[in-house]
Specification:
36% helix, alpha+beta, 4-stranded antiparallel β-sheet, 25 helices
Length: 822
């Protein structure tokens, strides 16, 4: 044993002797290592590198924030809101703070992103870009100090009361078993659970500060604000495609590079997300069906509490279905003997309406129905040019719907760009003018498919067999048989691409003549007033044609096929300086002017168009019209012109019926009363359909002022209604008090409240001061606004007669001399 220990010690010493030089040599040869190269910090994010293409579906950019805040274009719109709308206190604080910091934000840009496409992203992200990191660092504390006043943290929730914690006493520990039991088995419950334990209290923690409703950080020249915490990797994951690299986004942003406000909506991602949600829902529904199929016994038949459906009665079964082949006839009426050439169409509803109605309903559903082919993206921009606000919208379509300019009207297929010629036809006093280029063959095919799809879906819904796949039948098949032609092959090639509509000013409606026979009978007024009578304006349609003679030959056949049997026997014609007007009573009137077919349901409107054309008083000759469409390119796909007269009818405070207070009157006195026309153009520059709308500044000011004034009037009207109701309640309470507690006398307001006949809170809550005065055998109650013009405008009065009276006394009390209130 001793020898073995000696040998072990000897080996250990030998090992140490051998290893020591090696360790010393290694220690001497260990030179200081060079520090590892520091990792290159990632560059600070910018607008262009902040987001990936699949981060958010909505992107908004505001350029030149400070300059925009100080611009007259923004302040002219804020003026009616601040003075007439009574905006919230936070809004006023924000506007004031932004104006104070407009110089710092002069060249900055603001980004707002919303609708996240991936989880773990803030719902809303706001980024402000400065000219340098130093500017951002300097502005950061100011913004951080201001945001709590605008977005205060919610009040902390009250903490719970101190929680008693039961600690075992030494006796309990000693008596516990090896498993830590509460006490001996023979101990009574009161001893083992209560007497053997002591109670201590955990000290109450201080209220933790409430979480802020926003997160804020600075990165380089950016200051970012969000509703939840985030990392830059979550906004732009590694190897992800930048938003700037998305083709649709780049196309839209480059097109609107100079506009003040830019908005981009990724509809392709929205549609993809919706399809995934629909697919997931269908899969879950299929699973439920499989589970129910696998366990049929587990499913109990529901109890039918409703009465069973009964078979239709014999009378219901024998009711004849409406016939689709019945031919309505044209009714001719005449109160006085007239020559056969002056026969007129009856002004009574014609049976032909029953034939035309279903067809028009079907055409309407086909035009606006069908599956909407939504674009891949939509972008919009707002810019301020002179005295107009310009809104531009770019539709970024996919390859399959390049020509679709209006997403929610799938059958609206634009034709080639054109120079509108219909202004040479319509009168100069036209209030509304619309002209578009249409590809009729594609529109026709789309309508036919929409009707076929609707029929197929209807059959599936009613569990009827679906027809075998075959070319869908034309919705005009019945009328094509009567005409003896095909609309697509024989009629549409005769039409040009321009389709226009006009709404002219009201024109005098003279005494019925052969041309407008069937119109309203003259009233027993003198001739001067009868000739001055005006009628509501009727729309007039103008369709460009390629072959006037061929279209003229088809029109009588078309009218006959629509169900107006024998109508061509009663057609009336009138020539005016080479133009010929053909009318069918109060049903239809048309004329050929230049290369256009002009059609209207009102003969007077058609005559007005013809007279303006003959006298060269057309829209194209009006300088007002030419000046305000000058901004439009020469060739367009669509054009709209709304004259000032029509706009004024809808934005005039007097016409809207809204009360005009002093503030509103003062504002209107400072606004230019001359309203410019509202104009619109549809073009395609190769990037997609571009919609451009020019809205006059004073028009938008009046619209905002009217909306703000009406918003302010809502609480005023509510307060006034409550004040009237309160006075009526007081009158009833006085009668009750007089018959009971008062013993023949009326009570004061305190008496009524003490008897629970009147609610004090209701009397004091709605901005009115209510007083009750007792005088002899009567009483008088008044309601006066606490702050005239803000809490109320009218004052009210009521007495023992229970007649409520009121009037505007500028904040004074109403009296018995006032008129009864409405």
């Amino acid at each position: 044993m001793l020898k073995s220990i000696q040998r072990l010690i000897t080996l250990l010493l030998v090992f140490l002797v051998v290893v020591s030089p090696l360790l010393a040599q290694q220690r001497r040869n260990t030179a200081p290592k060079k520090p590892a190269p520091a990792e290159v910090p990632e560059p600070s994010p910018t607008f262009e590198t902040l987001l990936s293409a699949d981060s958010y579906k909505v992107y908004c950019e505001i350029r030149g924030v400070g300059g925009l805040i100080r611009s007259s274009a923004v302040n002219d719109l804020l003026d009616p809101v601040m003075k007439l709308g009574g905006p919230p206190k936070e809004f006023k604080i924000l506007v004031k703070w932004l104006n104070a910091h407009a110089d710092v934000l002069a060249s900055s840009r603001m980004l707002v992103a919303g609708w996240p496409s991936r989880p773990n992203l803030p719902t809303v992200l706001v980024a402000i870009e400065f000219s340098s990191p130093e500017e951002a660092k300097k502005f950061y504390p100011e913004l951080r100090g201001f945001l709590p006043t605008l977005l205060p943290a919610p009040a902390p929730a009250p903490t719970a009361s101190p929680i008693p914690v039961v600690a075992p006493s030494p006796a309990t520990v000693a008596s516990s078993g090896p498993t830590g039991g509460q006490g001996r088995i023979n101990d009574p419950p009161s001893v083992s659970r209560t007497a053997t334990r002591s109670v201590r209290t955990v000290p109450e923690k201080e209220n933790a500060p409430a979480l802020s409703p926003y997160q804020m950080k600075q990165a380089g020249a950016l200051i970012l604000i969000s509703d939840t915490a985030f990392t830059f990797r979550s906004l732009r994951p590694p190897a992800s495609r930048l938003l700037e690299e998305d083709q649709n986004f780049t196309l839209a942003r480059n097109r609107f590079a100079s506009e003040s406000l830019f908005l981009y909506v990724d509809l392709k991602s929205i549609e993809k997300e919706e399809k995934e949600r629909q697919k997931k829902w269908e899969e879950e529904e299929q699973k439920q069906i499989e589970i129910q199929t696998a366990n049929p016994k587990a499913e109990q038949a529901p109890v039918n509490l409703a009465p069973e459906m009964t078979e239709p009665t014999v009378a219901e079964q024998q009711q004849p279905e409406p016939s689709s082949t019945s031919q309505p006839t044209l009714v001719v009426t005449s109160s006085d003997p007239q020559p056969s050439g002056n026969a007129t169409l009856s002004s009574e509803p014609q049976p032909a309406t029953e034939a035309v109605g279903p067809m028009m309903f079907s055409l309407y559903g086909a035009l606006f129905g069908g599956v909407s082919k939504w674009p891949e993206a939509v972008s919009a921009a707002v810019v301020f040019e002179g005295d107009a606000y310009v809104l531009r919208t770019l539709i970024v379509n996919g390859a399959e719907n390049k020509s679709n300019a209006i997403p929610f009207v799938p059958q609206f297929v634009s034709g080639p760009a054109f120079v509108p010629e219909s202004p040479n036809i319509f009168p100069a006093d036209t209030d509304l003018f619309v002209s578009v280029s249409l590809d009729y063959p594609q529109v026709y095919d789309g309508m036919v498919k929409a009707i076929a799809n609707a029929d197929e879906q209807s059959r599936k819904y009613r569990n009827q067999p679906v027809k075998e796949s075959s070319p869908p039948e034309s919705p005009f098949a019945i009328y094509e048989k009567k005409l003896g032609l095909k609309i697509k092959d024989d009629l549409l090639p005769l039409l040009g691409n321009e389709f226009a509509l006009a709404l002219a000013k009201k024109v005098p409606s003279p005494t019925p003549s052969p041309l407008n026979a069937g119109a309203e009978e003259p009233t027993p007024e003198d001739g001067e007033k009868r000739n001055a009578r005006t009628a509501d304006p009727s729309p007039v349609i103008a369709i460009s044609v390629k072959d006037r003679e061929a279209v003229a030959r088809l029109i009588p056949k078309i009218i006959e096929s629509l169900g107006f049997k024998g109508a061509n026997l009663f057609a009336q014609t009138e020539k005016r300086d080479g133009a010929e007007i053909t009318s069918y009573g109060n049903v239809l009137a048309y004329a050929f002017l230049g290369d256009f077919l002009v059609v209207s349901a009102d003969a007077a409107a058609t005559r007005h168009v013809v007279d303006a054309y003959v006298n060269h008083q057309t829209l194209s000759s009006d300088s007002h019209f030419r000046n305000f469409i000058r901004w439009q390119p020469r060739q367009v796909l669509g054009q709209v012109y709304v004259a000032p007269g029509l706009v004024r009818q809808y934005i005039s405070p007097a016409g809207s019926g809204a009360p005009v207070n002093d503030n509103m009157s003062d504002f209107l006195s400072r606004v230019n009363p001359v309203i410019d026309p509202l104009t619109y153009a549809l073009t395609n520059e190769g990037q997609g359909p571009l919609h451009e709308l020019h809205v006059p500044k004073n028009l938008l000011q009046m619209i905002i002022a009217q909306a703000s004034s009406e918003a302010t009037q809502v609480p005023l009207q509510t307060n006034e209604a409550v004040a009237k109701s309160s006075l009526r309640t007081i009158a009833v309470a006085e009668a009750t008090y007089q018959a009971t507690k008062g013993d023949g006398r009326f009570g004061s307001l305190d008496d009524l409240i003490a008897e629970n006949l009147v609610n004090r809170e209701m009397l004091q809550k709605y901005g009115y001061r209510i007083e009750v005065t007792i005088s002899g055998k009567g009483f008088e109650a008044i309601a006066v606004p606490v702050t005239y013009g803000e809490s109320g405008r009218l004052s009210y009065f009521i007495d023992e007669t229970s007649v409520l009276r009121g009037g505007d006394h500028g904040g004074g009390a109403a009296t018995i001399a006032d008129q009864p209130a409405q």
